[in-house]
Amino acid sequence: MTQERYAMLCGLGAVGLWSTVATAFKVALGEMSPLELMWIAALVSWALMGVLVWRKGLMRQALGRGWRTALWAGMMNPVAYYLVLFAAYDRLPGQEAMALNYTWALAMAFLAVPILGQRLTRIDIIAGLIAYAGVWTIATRGAVLDVAFADPLGVGLALASTLLWALYWLLNARDSRPPLVAQWQNFSVGLPVFTLLIALGSGFEWYGWKGVGAGIYVGLFEMGIAFVLWQLAVRGISRTAKVANLIFLSPPISLLLLHLVIGEPILISTLVGLMLILGGLGLQQWQKAAEPAPQA
Asked: How many domains does the structure of the chain reveal?
């Protein structure tokens, strides 16, 4: 098997796993609070990443340096990002939260202007207008001329999660830590925070294997194995755009699973809004693919 083919298979594996997590989120949140779900998922992901860091001989480095970066990075991801994201999933239908969350790439393009000093192209602006027209369609559930959102707080939380995710990656652009080490250190910071929040609240209750199993699944696959597979895909492919385009396979699969497993009726407004969001993202990807390669 060629390295290119192996990288594409890793990318498909990651996208396949990400396609299932919206359903896992809704299953778990039907049984427990966002904070309890995050604690279980963070514990599982932290343990998995710790084993991988140790197996790769990186534990000495992970324990020795990088903690100053991990302190603020861990508070952004996993703490702030996932708590806000799970709160959005707790309020909105899974299909709406999932679709709105896909605008993070556009949020990154806009935030890169003040943070990294990059400039917006005409294509960036057009792509943003198309995608956020999709956001408006989903938020109003098709009543696009009506300013009253079906759940303004839920929509606000979903969009806030995209800003947090985009900010996290932009601020980490100069992070020199190996990805596995960074992920483990960030969760080493986040896990005690989740534990403290639960201890100060109502404490953790046993909700049965359905909810706990979904939480374990989220930690193992959404935050763990999918992350590793995606890193292998990005590092092994000749052109990042090839593997990045695989992400467009995820939303339709997610919608189908939410319908079949959770029983969510697929709303016309979600389909239209998602097509607009993916259209905007596709336009942005096309622009990147059309850029001339740098000369040696």
From this structure: 1
